Amino acid sequence: MGNTLDQKEEKLAHPTSLHKNDFTFHYVIGKGGFGRVWKVEMKKTHQILAMKEMLKIRVVSKRSVYSVMNERRLLSILKHPFIVNMQYAFQDKDNLYLGMDLMIGGDLRFHLGRVRRFTEEETRFFVACIVTGLEYLHVNGVIHRDIKPENLVFDNKGYLRITDFGIAKVLTPENFRDTSGTPGYMAPEVMCRENHGIAVDYFALGVLTYEFMIGRRPYSGRNRKEIKDSMMSRQVQLKKSDVPTGWSMEAADFINKLLQRKPENRLGNNGPSEVKNHLWLRDFQWKKLLEKSLDAPYVCLSEDNYDPRVNNDWKDDIDPAIRQNSIEELFEGYFFDARSPQRKVSDEKIQLQRGEESTVQIRYQDNVRRRDDI
Fold first, then answer.
1. For the domain with range 108-291, which CATH number is right: 3.40.30.10, 1.10.510.10, 3.20.20.190, 3.30.450.20?
2. Is residue 316 flagged as an active site residue?
3. Could you tell me the mean pLDDT of each successive run of 10 residues in the chain, 374 residues long?
4. 0.90 cut: is pTM over it?
5. Where is the binding site for ATP, in residues?
6. Which of 12, 53, 72, 172 lies at a C-alpha separation of 20 to 30 Å from 235?
7. Catalytic, out of 101, 107, 146, 201
């Protein structure tokens, strides 16, 4: 598979030309591990956005500097109607700010919690949206590695988009050390610390589709070890007696082929066209989907699509040994402005692998680990 992104890196001028005061912060619509997500309006252009506000000390305390910097660097290059695109990124002394397309429909987990299962028609549409987004990523040599309902969000027409690129990677042949992800959706080769490729995203798609059909994930457990043991002990295989009323055997076959534990046997291992040509999806109107001219079978209401718990405070888990003035250089270059005419892509290779983090960050993380070992 060709890798067209590994020769590009965003070079941006004027890294201080955006400020929090350039935006009107309306209200909170989400909460993450580092802060809140706001609905905001760009004062000058009246553009409505979702804005992640992330406390730097919390990012460092959770050892997630690489993740937030990786997401900004990838999103400065990626742009597609089936991913959530970055419009702005900037920082002040205390916080990082990431301005994204506003998805008013909320995330898929919120809606799945409401309905528990989706119909086959709804599921096929969702899967087609996800496959379209994954096709763009995979053709450009990027694996997402954390496809799950929380990272799939609805736009105002009921189309799903992929978000959260914190652990996404430019594809490399040696990546067995990278075991990040969410255990319930993690492919066996990642669980077992093996080299992995685009097939990990299709395994996660199989887990999702199974969940939409059956109402639960195929492999369960209270922790990563239990999920791994469940996965290694048996190959999930939907039989005719497992298929709910209103669902086809073609859908079951699609799921079974995605959930193959060996990546070489998995649907999608040879590329996204393999998934799109499966009997269950073969006649889907892909061109109209990309144009967003199809009527979505599941349309969210314009309001009340966010979990009310987003306004709750998170626990105070900041490492007291971290000093604000000691971490500023970790976030150097955290800036992006989609409007800038001076943006250009260089011919330098993107350095997105864990082994290529800044020496400052690695040194700091080593110090954290040593404190933890005491």
1. 1.10.510.10
2. no
3. 48 62 92 88 95 93 91 95 97 95 91 93 98 97 96 94 94 83 93 94 98 95 91 93 96 98 96 97 96 93 59 56 71 89 38 33 30 28
4. no
5. 52
6. 172
7. 146
